[in-house]
Amino acid sequence: MSHDDLLSHAEAGVLTLTFNRLDKKNSITAAMYAALADALAAARDDAAVRAVVIQGHELIFSAGNDLADFLNDPPASADAPVWRFLHGLRSFPKPLVAGVCGAAVGIGTTLLLHCDLVYAGDNAKFSLPFVNLGLCPEAASSLLLPARLGHVRAAEALLLGEPFGAEQAAEWGLVNRILPPGEVNSFAQAQARRLADKPQSALVATKRLMKAASADAVATAMAAEGEVFGPLLRGPAAREAFSAFMDKRKPDFSKV
Ligand code: COA
């Protein structure tokens, strides 16, 4: 990874992680997942970090996993960087704030389900095209999305892979507020600074209590998804989907 693909900036108690791989639509490589996982692990133990912001660019949040990586170097073990990142995110004890503009594909949307506050640009477009790629959901989205949206809405998003916009996401309770794209990241930062100013022990205890009832189920769902995701990733449907994307053609699933 170019060390600029994920920018990290700490100021006034807020660690900001910014996707910055614009030429590839902020798609996330294994090296970027490793950097994200390491940053969260360090932030967890660093008393100077009191809140974390995850953000992208005002035109694109993230095109999800790097599909060339999926094709050439799929995550091979349970401690692969992508899973380390997701487990770090799931169990992160301090407040997580996201700023999302433009496309948020795959993990670009599912990571938001683990954030405490989510601010979206009016240009935000969320999509979960796992099935269309021959894959299954990750980040416990197979549990969290039906829980938040209800089964039939989650089925449109996860089975049909239908994208949805900021208004829909706000109505479904996936984002807190819709803003002009140019204001999203600064607003997310401002909210994180407000959190950073609060008494940390009370804040961390409150987040833990809010998540207590679902914590075990989320961990179980993530592990179950991981068991299915790996074989699908190496299967013929996914290989065809990734090759088709790289070759800029429509996938042919007639034989899979
Ligand atoms: N992995 C690897 N490269 C990606 C990528 C991804 N997930 N998403 C985009 N890119 C690359 C494209 O290959 C292209 O590279 P090139 O300039 O070398 O040809 C570049 O980023 C620009 O992408 P492009 O598709 O031309 O941009 P767009 O504005 O027309 O569309 C998206 C943006 C995000 C809608 C579209 O790129 C897309 O659908 N990406 C794939 C999303 C996906 O399926 N992610 C996996 C989820 S599990």
Automatic annotation (TrEMBL):
<dbReference type="GO" id="GO:0004165">
    <property type="term" value="F:delta(3)-delta(2)-enoyl-CoA isomerase activity"/>
</dbReference>
<dbReference type="Pfam" id="PF00378">
    <property type="entry name" value="ECH_1"/>
</dbReference>
<dbReference type="InterPro" id="IPR029045">
    <property type="entry name" value="ClpP/crotonase-like_dom_sf"/>
</dbReference>
<comment type="similarity">
    <text>Belongs to the enoyl-CoA hydratase/isomerase family.</text>
</comment>
<dbReference type="GO" id="GO:0004300">
    <property type="term" value="F:enoyl-CoA hydratase activity"/>
</dbReference>
<protein>
    <submittedName>
        <fullName>Enoyl-CoA hydratase / short chain enoyl-CoA hydratase</fullName>
        <ecNumber>4.2.1.17</ecNumber>
    </submittedName>
</protein>
<keyword id="KW-0576">Peroxisome</keyword>
<keyword id="KW-0456">Lyase</keyword>
<dbReference type="InterPro" id="IPR051053">
    <property type="entry name" value="ECH/Chromodomain_protein"/>
</dbReference>
<dbReference type="InterPro" id="IPR014748">
    <property type="entry name" value="Enoyl-CoA_hydra_C"/>
</dbReference>
<dbReference type="InterPro" id="IPR001753">
    <property type="entry name" value="Enoyl-CoA_hydra/iso"/>
</dbReference>
<keyword id="KW-0413">Isomerase</keyword>
